[in-house]
Amino acid sequence: MPRMPGIQPDDPDVRAGLTADDRAGIARALGTALAAIHAVTAPAPGRYHPAADAVVPLEPPDASVWALPAPRPAGPGPGGPYARWVADRVLARLAQAAGHAPAATTAADRAWTAGLLAENEAATSVPFTPSLVVEDYKEGNTVVARDGGTWRVSGVFDLAQCYFGDGEADLPRTLCSYLDEDPGLARAFLAAYLDARPPRPGFSARAATHLLVDRAMLWEFFQRNRLRWWPEDWTFRDWAGRYLDLLAPLLP
Length: 252
What we know:
With about 250 residues, the chain is mainly alpha-helical. The chain has one domain (about 10-250): Alpha-Beta Complex (Aminoglycoside 3'-phosphotransferase, Chain: A, domain 2). The chain is about 50% helix and about 10% strand. It has 9 helices and 6 strands, in the order H-H-E-E-H-H-H-E-E-E-E-H-H-H-H. It has a two-stranded antiparallel ribbon with strand order 1-2. Strands 3-6 form a two-stranded antiparallel ribbon.
């Protein structure tokens, strides 16, 4: 990564030298670059598996990403099956999180999440062309450079989680990071992305679903590793719901 051209904007020493205009320009650059990444498409949703040396249909949520012995004969595609795969994935992660720390991921949390996923299922089922999804796209996994006063992403790394699916699933990781810091940066990032890649119908509802996917993945990781930097009595609904509330004013 140090060999890539540009600076690492998540480095505290680097960030200390950036102005507010720099930060906004970098946020816009991340949005534009993500739209370009999503121009890489595939005929159907899938993930690369080393054993098969090919992109194979998406695995069930409880399967190991790295241990699939052979390509599956069928898998979820754009439409209803894909929406169900997304919902199953979220609920599987929350079930795992509950196993790590039952008080932090309650039955009420999981029922609340399932209700939101069902409410947004029609939007998640709107057909799409599968795009390359990085799944951990954020400032910390990029380097940026400035050309003639305009910031651009000069490199992206940590690609182990890539798969082909709905590109909009890449938005929450960066959006939530910016919402924690400055909603104006989140707005700049999202506006740049949507300018380059206009959304299909149902974007706002899907944004809530994709946020739940992203937060559930992180929540399970946090609970498994006993990480916490929010009030002790918060459960998943408190934590993820905060981001849904922060995101709502930004959505078209």
